[in-house]
Write a structure and sequence with these properties.
- InterPro entries: FtsK_dom (IPR002543), P-loop_NTPase (IPR027417).
- GO terms for molecular function: ATP binding; DNA binding.
- Keywords: ATP-binding, Membrane, Nucleotide-binding, Transmembrane, Transmembrane helix.
- This is FtsK domain-containing protein.
- The structure is a single chain.
- By secondary structure, the protein is α/β, with parallel strands linked by helices.
- The chain folds into two domains: about 110-210, no CATH class; about 230-540, Rossmann fold, CATH 3.40.50.300.
- The protein contains 14 helices and 17 strands.
- The strands form four sheets. It has a nine-stranded mixed beta sheet, sandwiched between helices. A four-stranded antiparallel beta sheet has the order 1-2-4-3.
- A hairpin with a 2-residue loop joins strand 6 (about 245-250) and strand 7 (about 250-255).
- Helix 1 packs across helix 3 (about 85-100) and helix 4 packs antiparallel against helix 6.
- The longest helix has about 50 residues, at about 10-60.
- The protein is elongated and about 110 Å long.
- Adenosine-5'-triphosphate (ATP) binds next to helix 7.
- The site of adenosine-5'-triphosphate has 15 residues, from helix 7.
């Protein structure tokens, strides 16, 4: 059977309809192009009219009369001016055109993946931020997440970088354990491997979580711009401190936010305790402090490690002693205790007789003790006092006598520190990996940030007295005599060292000499800047790390 042709309307209809649609679309496009200025101006006029209406509504009733009068006066002036109405019309059109211009709207709201992240975060928070008794809970399974998350930001990889969470007033945000649970959950769900800052606003029932950039690790030892009495412990977040200091990085200078510790008579935390794990950079921090202290004062170093990491300081001007053995440590600290008393008495006498405090009581004296607990056992075995006992006077009265004590100790041997040391060292630093409890026990408060995914050496936290816990990165101040030290760092440290006051060959005394120095001095030797120079005790003879040689 021959096939009958389809009716014309069915065979050519679809093509016809498509053509008509195409024509209509191009006509609409052309009309839009032609009418575009008109559309823009109309939109602008509508916006202007809207803002005018709002302004009028916001004007107090008693001011409406004068405002109307002013407008009428303006209209009259414009009407009387030559070309006034025309110029006004052109100006209004121009303003309307500017106001109504097409601003491509920025993408609002999260994309699908981000939306999914926010929803799952919201769902995860429901058990923590809701109670069955709440009739209209902010957090409920399947609830409106956008009411709880007021602000959010994602990075290019779609990971959260900032989130503001509103939570119900009954959440126990005053309890550390409740906060820790929320912080842990948000940290885990938002992606590990980054450091987060949690900022709790208890009054507003809001929590802001933000990602912190890593602290720069490329600042090396250098002369920092500080006043006498200020020591740069390291560098922190720009938002955490009010001040910056210029720092050199290679050939460039930039401003960095320092953690500045103030010592001396007006300091509220005149002594420092540094705690860390082995290799965390505590010795480097003490070296950095020594280099800064030597710019204005004298230094006595007691090295319980006995590994000679302070050898570069031996015999330098202002370095009164570098002690590695028990006898040397005892005699050095005994001298320091006597010197503290001498300064106090001299200053007191001068004040009572109405004179100025003598200059030789003002020069800062620093006692830097690296792992003093290493001496405790040999001292007990030998029936001699623990060197820490000799710190009582400098710690208790050092502030008035310009004597500053810095103690570095490791977590494992923290118990061996005397009560006096713990009580009087109110400036605290923790370096290296540490649990939240360890940080809280040393600093007196936990940090508001999550632990670092990788802890570079010299990275940790600082807290000065009752101040906030600050992230800290210590400037690289390695031992210049260490073969592993880079040339740039070696040069940086050597440039900061004062000149030698004794030739290098005379620095190493045999162990028996160090033992001899254990005999108490008939009179305490005054510091280097006074008329008589103290006898520098450099017992740098190599000794085992834990047990000093002469015991
Ligand atoms: N802030 C820092 N920047 C770069 N490198 C550092 C920093 N602090 C320390 N280091 C390097 O880390 C290593 C260990 O440092 P340091 O000796 O100061 O640690 P420590 O805590 O005293 O450890 P230990 O008690 O085992 O000697 C050294 O090679 C040192 O150069």
């Amino acid at each position: 059977m021959a096939r009958r042709p389809l009716p014309r309307i069915l065979s050519s209809g679809s093509a016809h309809i498509a053509r008509s649609r195409e024509m209509a679309r191009s006509a609409a496009d052309s009309a839009t192009d032609v009418l575009h200025p008109l559309i823009t101006i109309t939109r602008g006029l509508r916006l202007l009219a809207g803002s005018g209406r709002r302004k009028w509504a916001a004007t107090p009733k008693e001011r409406r009369g004068p405002a109307l009068f002013l407008v009428a006066a303006c209209v009259l002036v414009v009407a009387l001016l030559p070309y006034g109405p025309l110029l006004t019309l052109i100006s209004v059109m121009a303003v309307a055109g500017w106001k109504g211009r097409d601003r491509t709207p920025a993408r609002k709201g999260p994309n699908d993946a981000e939306l999914q992240r926010l929803r799952s975060l919201y769902e995860a928070l429901v058990p923590y931020f809701s109670v069955p008794e709440d009739p209209s809970p902010l957090f409920a399974h399947g609830g409106e997440w956008d009411k709880a998350f007021d602000e959010y930001e994602f990075d290019a990889d779609g990971r959260l970088t900032r989130l503001r969470v509103s939570y119900p007033a009954y959440f126990t945000d005053g309890e550390d354990s409740s906060r820790v649970r929320i912080e842990h959950l948000l940290h885990t769900k938002s992606g590990r491997g980054r450091e987060y800052l949690f900022d709790w606003d208890e009054e507003g029932n809001e929590l802001v979580m933000s990602v912190l950039p890593p602290l720069p690790t490329d600042i090396a030892a250098q002369r920092f711009v500080t006043t006498p009495g200020e020591t740069v412990l390291g560098f922190t977040d720009a938002a955490a401190v009010r001040r910056t200091v210029p720092v050199m990085e290679g050939d460039t200078t930039r401003d960095a936010p320092p953690v500045v510790w103030r010592t001396g008579a007006r300091s509220t935390e005149p002594h420092l305790l540094v705690v860390g794990r082995p290799g965390s950079g505590t010795t480097s921090l003490l070296r950095s402090i020594a280099l800064q202290a030597l710019a204005h004062g004298d230094v006595v170093i007691v090295d319980g490690n006995g590994t000679g990491e302070y050898a570069s300081l031996t015999g330098r001007t202002g370095v009164l002693a570098v002690e590695c053995g028990l006898s040397g440590a005892l005699s050095g600290l005994e001298w320091a205790a006597n010197e503290t008393e001498r300064r106090l008495i001299a200053a007191n006498r001068a004040r009572q007789s109405g004179h100025a405090v003598p200059d030789d009581t003002k020069r800062p004296l620093w006692l830097l003790l690296d792992r003093p607990s290493a001496f405790s056992h040999p001292a007990a075995a030998d029936g001699r006092p623990d060197p820490q006992e000799l710190l009582q006077v400098p710690l208790r009265h050092g502030r008035a006598a310009n004597v500053t004590v810095v103690v570095a100790e490791q977590f494992d041997t923290l118990d061996a520190l005397s009560r006096t040391v713990r009580t009087h060292t109110r400036a605290r630093v923790v370096l290296g990996a540490a649990t939240r409890d360890e940080l809280a026990s040393v600093l007196g408060a936990p940090p508001h940030t999550t632990p670092t995914p990788e802890t570079p050496t010299g990275r940790g936290y600082a807290r000065l007295g009752t101040g906030p816990v600050l992230r800290l990165q210590v400037p690289a101040t390695p031992d210049p005599y260490d073969d592993a030290t880079s040339d740039a760092h070696r040069r940086a440290v050597l440039d900061l060292l004062p000149d030698r006051h004794t030739p290098p060959g005379a620095t190493t005394e045999p162990t028996d000499t160090a033992t001899r120095t254990a005999e108490p001095d008939p009179e305490p030797a005054p510091p280097a800047r006074t008329k008589v120079k103290p006898r520098p005790r450099q017992s740098q003879a190599p000794v085992p790390a834990a047990v000093p040689a002469e015991g």
